[in-house]
Design a protein that fits this description.
This protein has three helices and six strands; from the N terminus they run E-H-H-E-E-E-E-E-H. With 145 residues, the protein is an alpha+beta fold. The protein has a single domain, classed as Hotdog Thioesterase (Thiol Ester Dehydrase, Chain A), CATH 3.10.129.10. Strands 1, 2, 3, 4, 5 and 6 form a six-stranded antiparallel beta sheet that branches.
Length: 145
């Protein structure tokens, strides 16, 4: 994807604890970066957060996570992490993420979540209002977020 295809970005600075001896981010931290950015994306939607979902007895469970490394991030760099909903299934949602330093694309990823009844551990349909909210957000320009 192109950087312009993302309506939402979250920025964070690479910390010393996240790098190896060459001051390059250790690969496992990229999933944490994705999780932080996805959490902020979800917060921006205004949809029920994980605590409210838990109280309601339904939650989004991680089903799949992939990371593709193109170039390393380094200590003290500011990362811009784009998050975009790529589509819905009946009970699942697929999100694409990309990490940039300025205009350099470093990492791509995909997160797939399944909405499920916690007690039954069984998938349930994603609410229509969630779909509508995310569709509306994806059409906003980055400057309006």
């Amino acid at each position: 994807m192109a950087r312009e295809d993302f309506a939402f970005f979250h920025s964070l600075r690479v910390r010393w604890a996240e790098v190896d001896m060459q001051a390059i981010v250790f690969n496992g931290h990229y999933l944490t970066y994705f999780d932080v950015a996805f959490t902020e994306y979800w917060r921006r939607t205004g949809l029920p957060d994980v605590l409210q979902q838990a109280r309601d007895g339904r939650e989004m469970f991680a089903r799949k996570a992939t990371v593709e490394y193109l170039a390393p991030a380094r200590f003290d760099e500011m990362l811009d992490i784009g998050v975009r909903c790529a589509g819905f299934g009946r009970s699942s949602a697929r999100f694409l993420l990309e990490i940039y330093v300025q205009n350099q694309h470093l990492v791509s990823g995909e997160l797939v979540y399944v909405y499920a009844d916690v007690a039954l551990r069984k998938a349930v349909p994603i609410p229509d209002d969630w779909r509508a909210t995310i569709a509306r957000i994806e059409k906003l320009a980055p400057s309006l977020l």
